[in-house]
Amino acid sequence: MRTALSYSKNYLQIFKPQPLIDSYLELLTNNVLSGQFKSEYIEYSDFIIQCSNWIDSTTVNTLTGLGSYTRKDIIIGCTQYIDNLYMQGPVQTITNDYRYHNRLGLSTVTDVGNLIPNVPLIIAMPFPSTGDIHVSMKELLDECLNKDIPVHIDGAWISCCRNIVFDFSHPSIKSVGISLSKGLGLGWNRVGIRYTKEPVQDSISIMNDFSMNNRALITIAKYFMDNTKSDYLWYTHNINYSKVCKDFNLTETNCIYLALDDNQPVGISPLLRYLERT
Predict the structure, then answer these.
(1) How far is residue 234's CA from residue 241's CA, in Å, rounded to a whole number?
(2) Could you tell me the domains of the chain?
(3) 41 CB contacts (<8 Å, ≥6 apart)?
(4) Is 107 in contact with 91 (CB distance < 8 Å)?
(5) Contact by Cβ (8 Å): 4, 271
(6) What is the DSSP letter of 71?
(7) Eight-state DSSP code of residue 9
(8) First-to-final CA distance of the chain
(9) Average pLDDT score over the chain
(10) Is the pLDDT at 1 greater than 80, yes or no?
(11) Number of H helices, E strands in the chain
(12) pLDDT tens digits, 205-223
């Protein structure tokens, strides 16, 4: 994790904004990697409950409708969630969504008003280029309902965001993936849960049904959740976040490590780490 050597705009990250990992999350990581943490056994089902409760405990977001999902599965972060959807056939994505889609080059990139009927849509919420709900999310979901398009929500950023008010019960939405990577600095230990409204049989459900998930992933994630409350990053760094945005004439977003510079997303984690350590 890069730390700015001086309080300078030169340390804004333009091409690949990094999630914020502060000194406390670093301490937890070092405890794990050095073997100094107490490894407690946890059943897969109990992990799903703890992870779901941790997500639900947010006080800086209003997330409703997840109770309408009948099944929850462990995922190896939202990347596995996305890859699993690609395995099932053609998908479409929205312009300026997660760059991983562009790197794969397997989706049809489209926009609101021109969505392809019957082809599943993967969309990040919050949206990477703005750090907020897509500006046309309501219109998009209604279009998907009219065109029989199943919607799958990539919630990789939810755990590090604020002011997200969203109802997941919209009938077009069929599944939601939420990981702990961004909110707990666990990009090196990717894990989360997938919510589905209807039973599905795919690579994720099979791994869960046959207890094939990596136990180290959930054991480490349990340790982090046990020692870090939901919304930790915002409660800890909100003042410095606003300071960086004000000092460098940036527009605030709802993502703790992202700001807008002339409407272009930039990462500010190195500057937040600098302020934390000075």
Answers:
(1) 9
(2) 9-30+231-276 (no CATH), 44-227 (3.40.640.10)
(3) 219
(4) yes
(5) yes
(6) E
(7) G
(8) 17
(9) 96
(10) no
(11) 10, 12
(12) 999 999 999 999 999 999 9
Q: In this structure, are residues 6 and 257 in contact, taking their beta carbons and an 8 Å threshold?
A: no
What CA–CA distance (Å, rounded) separates 179 from 72? 13
What is the per-residue pLDDT for 40? 86
What the block records as the tokens of 127 is 């949206």
- Six-digit token string for 256: 């703790």
Model pTM score:
0.96
Residue 183 has pLDDT above 80, yes or no: yes
Q: What is the DSSP letter of 132?
A: B
Query: pLDDT digits over 131-154, tens only?
Result: 999 999 999 999 999 999 999 999
What strands, in cross-sheet order, belong to the sheet with 92-94? 71-75, 192-196, 173-179, 151-154, 121-124, 92-94, 108-110
Instruction: Please report which confidence band the pLDDT of residue 2 belongs to, taking 50, 70 and 90 as the band edges.
Output: confident
Phi, psi (degrees; rounded to nearest 5) at 264: -105, 130
Decide: 4 and 247 in contact? Cβ < 8 Å.
no
Per-residue tokens: 43: 């059943």
CB contact at 8 A, 57 and 230:
yes
d(CA 34, CA 26): 12
- Structure tokens given for 216: 């180290």
Phi-psi region of 158 (alpha: psi -120 to 50; beta: other; left: phi over 0): alpha
Burial of 205 (0-12, 13-18, 19+ CB in 10 A): middle
Strands, E assignment, the chain:
62-64, 71-75, 92-94, 108-110, 121-124, 151-154, 165-167, 173-179, 192-196, 251-252, 258-261, 264-267
